[in-house]
């Protein structure tokens, strides 16, 4: 079931603009990270504190229909806010990778599974490796898959 409620765009204008253009164009435009040419997905969550709908772009790291959601925050010392939102309710999640968003459910991965997904993420977006080197926290990786209908 799609997430409904009051939408609060990102306070970062370029993120809000990219999400709006991506959605408006069905993923045909604004589908890369700025001028890198590297593909992104749009993720929708519900704010754990506010209950508002939040949307943001993440690097597209897809494998067999599942997506890695890398909570890097550019190597900052703290996790991104969206990480708390998803871990608080891993079913209040939608992913858009192309024309239509779909309901998803996420889980945090650890151990060998995390290592496998981390390698995929670094292959898709090499700066992730630098981000991990620049922070003392272990960057979490969540894996999202299409939610079961019904």
Describe the structure.
A seven-stranded antiparallel beta sheet has the order 2-1-5-6-7-4-3, sandwiched between helices. It has one domain: Pnp Oxidase, Chain A (Roll), CATH 2.30.110.10. The chain has four helices and seven strands. A hairpin with a 2-residue loop joins β3 (about 60-65) and β4. The model has no long low-confidence stretch (mean pLDDT about 95). It is about 25% helix and about 25% strand. By secondary structure, the protein is of the alpha+beta class.
What is the compact description of this entry?
With 150 residues, the protein is an alpha+beta fold. It has helices at 13-24, 81-88, 111-124, 127-133, and strands spanning 40-46, 53-59, 62-63, 66-70, 93-96, 101-108, 141-146.
Share of helical residues: 25-40%
Amount of beta strand: 25-35%
Mean pLDDT: 96
Please name the fourth-level CATH homologous superfamily.
Answer: Electron Transport, Fmn-binding Protein, Chain A
User: In this structure, how is the largest beta sheet organized?
Assistant: 7 strands, antiparallel
Rg for CA atoms:
14 Å
CATH class: Mainly Beta
Sequence of strands across the biggest β-sheet? 2-1-5-6-7-4-3
Fold-level CATH name:
Pnp Oxidase, Chain A
- Count of helical stretches: 4
> What is the count of structural domains?
1
- Gap from first CA to last CA: 8 Å
CATH architecture group name: Roll
Task: Please provide the count of β strands.
Answer: 7
Oligomer: single chain
The best one-word shape is globular
């Amino acid at each position: 079931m799609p997430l409904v409620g009051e939408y609060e765009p990102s306070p970062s204008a370029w993120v809000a603009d990219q999400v709006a253009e991506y959605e408006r164009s069905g993923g045909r435009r604004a589908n890369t990270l700025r001028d890198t040419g590297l593909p992104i997905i749009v993720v929708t969550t519900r704010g754990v504190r506010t209950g508002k709908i939040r949307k943001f772009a993440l690097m597209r790291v897809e494998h067999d229909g599942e997506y890695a959601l890398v909570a890097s925050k550019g190597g900052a010392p703290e996790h991104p806010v969206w990480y708390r939102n998803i871990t608080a309710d891993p079913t209040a999640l939608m992913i858009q990778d192309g024309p239509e968003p779909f309901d998803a459910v996420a889980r945090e991965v650890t151990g060998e599974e995390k290592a496998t997904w981390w390698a995929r993420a670094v292959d898709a977006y090499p700066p992730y490796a630098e981000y991990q080197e620049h922070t003392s926290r272990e960057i979490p990786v969540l894996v999202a898959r299409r939610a079961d209908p019904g």
